[in-house]
Structure formats: structure tokens, C-alpha cells
Amino acid sequence: MNDKSYPHLLAPLDLGFTQLKNRVLMGSMHTGLEESRDGFKKLSAFYAARARGGVGLIVTGGFSPNFRGRLHPLSAEFSSARQARAHRTITDAVHEEGGKIALQLLHAGRYALHPFAVSASAIRAPIAKFTPSKMSVRQINKTIDAFAKSAELAREAGYDGVELMGSEGYLINQFICQRSNHRYDEWGGSYENRMRFPIELVKAVRKRTGNDFIIIFRLSMLDLVEQGSTHEEVVMLAKALESAGVTILNTGIGWHEARVPTIATQVPRAAFAWVTEKLKSEVNIPLVTCNRINTPDVAEGILAGGQADMVSMARPFLADAEFVNKAEQDRADDINTCIGCNQACLDHVFVGKRASCLVNPQACYETELILTPAVNHRKVAVVGAGPAGLACASAAAERGFSVDLFEKNDYIGGQFNLAMQIPGKEEFKETIRYFSRRLEQTGVNVKLGHAATLDELKGYDEVIVATGVQPRIPPIPGLKESDKTIDYQTLIRDKVEVGQKVAVIGAGGIGVDVSTMLTEPEHQALEDWLQDWGIDTDISHAGGLYPHEEYVSQRQVWLMQRKPGRVGKGPGKTTGWIHKKVLEKRGVELLGGVSYDKVDEQGLHITVEGQARVLPVDHIIVCAGQTSVNVLTEQLEAANVKVSVIGGADVAGEVDAKRVIRQGVELAAKL
Known about the structure:
By secondary structure, the chain is α/β, with parallel strands linked by helices. It has three domains: 13-349, TIM Barrel (Alpha-Beta Barrel); 379-471 and 627-670, NAD(P)-binding Rossmann-like Domain (Rossmann fold); 485-624, FAD/NAD(P)-binding domain. 31% of the residues lie in helices and 17% in strands. Helix 1 (39-52) links the parallel strand 3 and strand 4 (57-63). Helix 13 (387-399) runs parallel beside helix 15 (428-442). Its EC number is 1.3.1.34. Residues 9-333 form the NADH:flavin oxidoreductase/NADH oxidase N-terminal domain. It comes from Photobacterium swingsii.
């Protein structure tokens, strides 16, 4: 064991009445298991794996202290002895693995997706369907008591502490800010009155739980909304929270209704550590920083630089339960890195599905998707080393099969090699690095620059075809023949120089990525990124936002789709608005309901809403979907070879790494 690489990250943290074994907090994530049938058994296995993986302190997904505080009518509540007894399964599982765990208490306030929503004032949130009722003084006091009772029950359930969700724009945050608190009684008006709710709440929780119980307060240090808090106000509240009995202050960045990205892959790594650092000298209790920290090196740098006392990582523990152990064993290269895509975690939860992870489909499926040792060590050939083939080959080899992986190119990664060249998607190279390590460790025989033939595949017990996709060229007169036409793969792979006027055909995920790449400013350091989104690093403006000049690209880009309606959002539920806003900021013209008439020397002829237009383009980039690259399957079946088809070779459609990696692992588990 070598802990010298990350001495600050792996240093214990003394809280006085208890000690954390390192400076890693697994941040709160709702998984969807909280409400599902038999969910606690699965949730216990999920948290136990992370405790076994070395996390210093785990925080659960949010549980409401009462009915009105639920996010939606059927979401998780924690307010009775019966519920506390059910949670014993979780706390026992974590403690058996030597971990510590805190229950997050979250009251949705005006974000509640039901008509019983309440808040400081009757002001509907821009992202909500219901206008909340204004809480009476009696309701406020009852809510404080509900939090305190839930915290007391959490202790009885075996939790080591609670986290009070005071950020992200939920109820506690709603009381703090003028944006959502228009009261004129003792709970509103002046800042001293607006911060009364969190202070009284903490006092009540501390009184009911005693002095040897962890109270984490998730403090919104940068609201990123108009009429939010200033830094001066955040400092005032932080000091009052420390006096009231908070053990640890955890950083919250941005409300859910904020129109600034905070955790998506486009956000630079550790982009908000400076926010926590601004508060560091003002309080004497440990501070946790968060958001887009996904490697031990980034975490160590933050702690070594004195920006925080702990780091919070949530999605990185979906990607790899063993993150901390691997760091401790000096095996950082073996970590399956979170790429910040949101596609299988947040995107799932926001539509009521179970969370998982694009790069690790076993996350939240620990009791179901299990790679058991193979009984018969058969010979398996995997054809194609894109994401599907990599996932399947490494998982099959992990089970004990003898696996040969054929790839016609002289490199692995498939479409991920294109994705990682898109600005804001550089993290995809981490997934290729991880799979490269897995292939080595599991003993997969990788044959690069080798197009598998039918004759050599006849000698295998199982053949898995994962040959991927190629761009589809739509039947537009003159398109294929024109020297203006470039398909997206050629553009990205060969780094083709394009002119100042470019049309992009197809506004799915690839079209959005290509348009972003074509309009990206040349240099974008963290300071540039913060400035681009109007983030005030002094936090002297309310909410930390200031009026700013936006970057507009000198290149004219038209992004078009046949389908009428919204253009430019891409496939991500929680990231679509970011893509669209970036394109709009940069001056990209977004056109829906387009019919493509022809391509000639004048340019691209289109019809939009009955109006004919000619776009005088230098180049046309085709992002109009894909077709499968699969000529082997029929030949193999005819030769009576057992064959399975996965990934793009199975379903071309929109490129979907989440689907193909899961498909690869699931097939390997069934072999």
C-alpha cells in the first residue's frame, strides 16, 4: 500500500467526538431505489460497495421530513419509527464495511411536484408546475420540529449524522433569498430574519440529537440566480450556523432553476473550488468543496492548496465504487472515471427511472448485474473495439473466458475517439484509458489492425459482433457529389479545415456537438469559462451573477433538422438546455422543419415554413444519423457459428454509449 501519492486526500479528519478515515465525502445522489419495491436491499448493497471502497463519509439521497416536503407524491419520506427501522438495513450494511453514513433531509419547498407545495412565499419557481402556499408561522415551527424529529429518528436508525439540504434552491434556500422570500414577519425582510429558518432548524436538530452526532449543512455559497445571496451574506450565515452547532459545512453551487451549468461535462474540473476557498478563513469548522472533481489528483490539488478540508464526489462513485481504495493503492489509472455526462444518473432520475452509470452499468444494479466466474472457459471472439466491444470483452474476460478482441483500426475506442475531440467532452478519453487498462488486467488478447475473417471466427465457441456504425448520407440531390460535403466522422477524425459559412444537417447529439466544435473559442481557461457564463468571482453581485458580454463566433453556422420544433438540445434531459444556450450565445442559427432541396454551386437550397432559402455555405457537415457496419452476422449464422450482435451493429440510430456499454456487460454476464 502506498498512501504517499495523496497524503491530503487520505489524511483522517478529527471531528472531536468521532474521526473520518479520509477527506472523501460521497455526495448525496437520489438513485430511484429509495422508493422502489425491495429498493432498500439494493440500496444497502450499493452503499456497502462504496463503504468497502474506502469512502470516508457517505451521504444518502434526500428524504423528506414530512409529506409536504416530498419532491413528488410518492417520493421518499423519513418521519416515523417504522421508516427508521427499515433504514437499519442500510446503516448496518455500511457499518459492517467500516464506513460512516449520514441521512440527507431535504424539503422540496416550491420545487415539489404536487399541489401541496409550501414555501416562504407563494411564488412559483420557473421550473415548477405548482405555486406553493405561503407557510404560516405555525407551519414553519412544525416544519422545524419535523426536521428535528427526523434527525432524532436517523440517529435511532443507526446513521452517524444528517445533512440538512440548504442549497440548490430547496425550502431552506428559499427562506434565505429575497428571490423566493417576500415575507415581512420575523421570517422575512432583513437578511437576519431570512436566515432565521436555517439557524432555528440547526439548533432544534442539535438539541434533539446531542453533541456527538454529525450535522452537515449544505450551504448555498453561490446561488447563480438573480436576488440570490452575496458573499458577505454567505459569511454571516456560515458563522451563525457554526455557532448553532453545525459540524461540517458542505458547499452548494447553483439553484436548480439557474441557467448556468454546474456539474455537466462542459464544466471545467474543480470549477467552483474557489467558492469554498473564499469562505475557508471565515469559519473554524471543516468545509467541503464539490462539483466536477473526478480524479484523485484534482482532489489532492484542492486539499493541498488549502481550498477546502474535504472533497465531495457523487457521480464518481457511480462510475467506480473502489475510487478511494485505488487511490490509496496508487492505482489511479485503474479508476473508471466519471465523464460528467448525466445520461444514466440524473437523466434517469428526472424521468422516474433508476439511476446507473454510462461507464459502469453495474452501479445501482449490484444485486442483479453480477459477473460470476464462468463454469466453462469457452473461447470468445469480440469483433470491434468500440464502447460495446470493449465493455463486453473486458467483462467476459473478467468472468474467466478466453477472449480475443479484433479491431480493424490500429486503436481502440470507436466513436469515443471522436467524442473526446468535442470541446467539453474531453473526459471521454478517460473511458478509453480505463478500458485499455481493463483489457490488460483481464487478459484480453487484443488484435489491432486486424479485420476478422469468417474462417478464423469459425474456431470460436461464441462470436460477438460489435462493429459499430458509419455516417448515413441522406438522399439530397447533389449532396453526395458536392466537394462542400463532409461527413461528421471525417470532419472530426481528420480535423478538416472548414470555411466561415457552414451548414450542419441533423440536429441530434452529433449535430449539436459538431456545431459546438465549429464555434468554440480558441482558448478557454477556467477564467474564460466563468466570464463566458457571467459568474462574479467576488460574489458581490446578488447570486454571483453580473451583466457580461457573450462570445459570438465569427463563423456562421446553421444547425438544421427535418422535424419541426425545438432545435439544438441534443439527447440529454438535464444537459439539453446547456447545449441550446451555448449555440444561441455563439450565434448559431437553429432551424426546424427544414426540407433539403438540393446542393449546387450556390450552396444548400432549403425550404423552411414554405419559404425557399439558399444558404451560401462553404461546407456542409452531414450528421444525419448512422447505418450499421455489419457484414459478418449472416455469414456466421450460415456457417452455424454462435453469434450475438451488440452496439451500433445491432441498432444504429442515434449514437448511445449508455445503451451499448450496458448491452455489452449484460451479454457478457449471460454467456
